[in-house]
Design goal:
The structure is a single chain. By secondary structure, the protein is of the alpha+beta class. It has one domain: Jelly Rolls, CATH 2.60.120. 28% of the residues lie in helices and 19% in strands. The protein has 7 helices and 11 strands. A 6-stranded antiparallel sheet has the order 1-7-4-9-3-2, covered by helices on one side. A 3-stranded antiparallel sheet has the order 6-5-8, with no helix packed on it. Helix 1 crosses helix 4.
Length: 266
């Protein structure tokens, strides 16, 4: 069910073009995301245990874990990943008929550190950094996020320039770094080329942040995909099946995934 009319969605898309990200406050029902949080906890624990046994840090740096979510149960809810307002904004920014290409989480725990400033993808062309948006991340937390438990720190407008120009502007003070506190139910839509970083989780509890990736239909990154069980796919509405059309269909989804790829920051 939509919350915003077409005029409001147009205004959101204009703000996105300027800033490189957009916040929708109180967008998802808190109860639905609390169910996600409960289902996520046992998926994170094996990664934490494995790191402890191997005396290593997290798979995305000290105290930080990237965990792919199985596309089943609460994680396969079309009211979340096929939300009419979010998809409507995505289409305005990244073109009609996009594809959903990622369903995962980023979770800093105690011992996490500041990440280096980075982007989540390289530019399409080295000599043309100002291309239109081609890949977006939709982020929403499973716990309330404040200054203590590792909020995202980001910049405005850096999605429309080269990485070197963005870093130089940040160092010179032309761009301000701003942390993004979020409540459960808030949603952030961002161009993955915007300069950003994770911050330390100083609390004693994990801070899971979901990422759903959407991209233009022709853009493919082999390191990310969604294994979609055939029986789950068959029960989805047509619009949701269309979003998932380029992902592999499987008989049964895995409970844990290989999170070993390392080239995730650019």
């Amino acid at each position: 069910m939509r919350k915003y009319d077409e005029t409001t969605r147009d205004a959101f898309a204009e703000a996105f073009e300027r800033d490189g990200f957009l916040l929708l406050r109180d967008h998802f029902p808190r109860a639905a995301l609390e169910a996600w949080r409960d289902a996520f906890a046992p998926l994170l624990q094996p990664h934490v245990d494995a790191a402890r046994e191997a005396s290593t840090s997290g798979n995305r740096g000290p105290g930080r874990y990237y965990v792919t979510l199985p596309f089943e149960g609460v994680f396969a809810d079309p009211s979340i990943f096929c939300d009419e307002d979010i998809v409507g904004i995505v289409e305005r920014v990244a073109g009609r008929d996009p594809v959903m290409c990622q369903l995962a989480t980023d979770t800093p725990v105690a011992g996490s550190e500041y990440q280096d400033w980075h982007r989540d993808t390289p530019p399409l062309f080295d000599d043309a950094p100002e291309t239109p948006s081609f890949q977006l991340a939709v982020n929403f937390p499973l716990v309330d996020v404040d200054a203590r438990n590792g909020p995202l720190e980001t910049t405005r407008g850096t999605h429309r320039m080269s990485r070197d120009e963005a870093l130089a502007g940040l160092e010179a003070g032309r761009f301000a770094a701003e942390q993004v506190p979020m409540k459960v139910g808030d949603v952030m839509i961002r161009d993955v080329r915007g300069l950003h970083r994770g911050t330390p989780n100083l609390s004693g509890d994990p801070r899971p942040m979901v990422v759903i990736g959407y991209s233009r239909a022709w853009y493919f990154r082999p390191e990310v995909h969604i294994d979609v069980p055939r029986d789950v796919f068959a029960e989805l509405p047509a619009r949701a099946r269309r979003l998932l059309r380029f992902n592999p269909l499987v008989e049964k989804t895995a409970r844990t995934f290989d999170e070993s790829y390392r080239q995730f920051a650019y």
